[in-house]
């Protein structure tokens, strides 16, 4: 059999894909992205955070065997770890890949688990960015839960982006916060237990604090610092530090 021609570079496909799926629903974008030969092999990356269950539910209804990558930084809340197990079992996900930071790198660069106190970016690189890059080896792209209403540079977010040699698929790009809330209610999806305790955005335990009434939902992430992104999202090859995290 003749060898299949390699896919064009992601940047060359983005415009065509966004035009092709411009008027599709979130579910349709997922379903077609998983079968479109011009997109390639996809994984879903999920934090199992405050809103993650919406996209996880959509994916599970289409194909429960889609690989789901969950980054366990080894600094997450126990509630997040428990929620990941609960949601995975409830939705019947069959290929959840729990990824950890490299043990040798942790020993060399953060043996006392205090790197976040001195350099939050370096800590995120060690515990999130590098493990994710390794986990995505062999995939042509990944599915995220990023949305325009999260602000920052996401206000113009499209269904498809090109990033670091891969496609990024954002099925919920055009959703409003009310859409997320209504979907969870209508489908009786379990909420992350920390949401009801004042955590509308949830990351690692040392760097996440409750949000007070009237504060921005992301105020509890890296409180007191300019940092608002963990660094796993890039725009035009540059780390995106503005806006809400996936």
Automatic annotation (TrEMBL):
Co-factor binding comment: Binds 1 [4Fe-4S] cluster per subunit.
Key word Iron present: yes
Stored InterPro entries: PAPS/APS_Rdtase, PAPS_reduct_dom, Ppantetheine_attach_site, Rossmann-like_a/b/a_fold
Domain named Phosphoadenosine phosphosulphate reductase: residues: 42-210
Catalytic residue positions: 230
Annotated residues for binding of [4Fe-4S] cluster: 123-124, 204, 207
One Pfam family of this chain: PAPS_reduct
EC number: 1.8.4.10
Cofactor: [4Fe-4S] cluster
Keywords assigned: Cytoplasm, Iron, Iron-sulfur, Metal-binding, Oxidoreductase
Places the protein is found: Cytoplasm
Organism superkingdom: Bacteria
Top-rank EC class of the record's enzyme: oxidoreductase
Biological or metabolic pathway of the protein: Sulfur metabolism; hydrogen sulfide biosynthesis; sulfite from sulfate
Catalytic activity: [thioredoxin]-disulfide + sulfite + AMP + 2 H(+) = adenosine 5'-phosphosulfate + [thioredoxin]-dithiol
Keyword Ribosomal protein set for record: no
UniProt family annotation: Belongs to the PAPS reductase family. CysH subfamily.
Function: Catalyzes the formation of sulfite from adenosine 5'-phosphosulfate (APS) using thioredoxin as an electron donor.
UniProt-recorded name of the protein: Adenosine 5'-phosphosulfate reductase
Organism whose genome encodes this protein: Aliiroseovarius zhejiangensis
């Amino acid at each position: 059999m003749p060898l299949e021609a390699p896919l064009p570079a992601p940047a060359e496909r983005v415009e065509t894909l966004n035009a092709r799926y411009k008027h599709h629903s979130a579910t349709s974008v997922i379903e077609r992205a998983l079968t479109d030969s011009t997109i390639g092999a996809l994984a879903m990356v999920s934090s199992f955070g405050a809103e993650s269950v919406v996209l996880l539910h959509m994916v599970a209804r289409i194909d429960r065997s889609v690989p789901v990558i969950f980054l366990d930084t080894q600094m997450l809340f126990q509630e997040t770890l428990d929620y990941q197990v609960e949601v995975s079992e409830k939705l019947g996900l069959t290929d959840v890949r729990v990824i950890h930071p490299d043990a040798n790198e942790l020993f060399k660069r953060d043996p006392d688990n205090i790197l976040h106190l001195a350099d939050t970016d370096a800590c995120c690189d060690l515990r999130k960015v590098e493990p994710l890059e390794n986990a995505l080896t062999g995939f042509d792209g990944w599915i995220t839960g990023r949305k325009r209403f999260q602000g920052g540079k996401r206000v113009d977010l499209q269904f498809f982006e090109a990033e670091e040699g891969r496609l990024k698929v954002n099925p919920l790009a055009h959703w409003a916060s009310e859409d997320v809330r209504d979907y969870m209610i209508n489908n009786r999806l379990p909420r992350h237990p920390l949401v009801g305790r004042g955590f509308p955005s949830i990351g690692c335990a040392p760097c996440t604090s409750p949000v007070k009434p009237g504060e921005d939902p992301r105020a509890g992430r890296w409180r007191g610092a300019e940092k608002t992104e963990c660094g796993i999202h890039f725009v035009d090859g540059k780390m995106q530090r503005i806006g809400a995290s996936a």
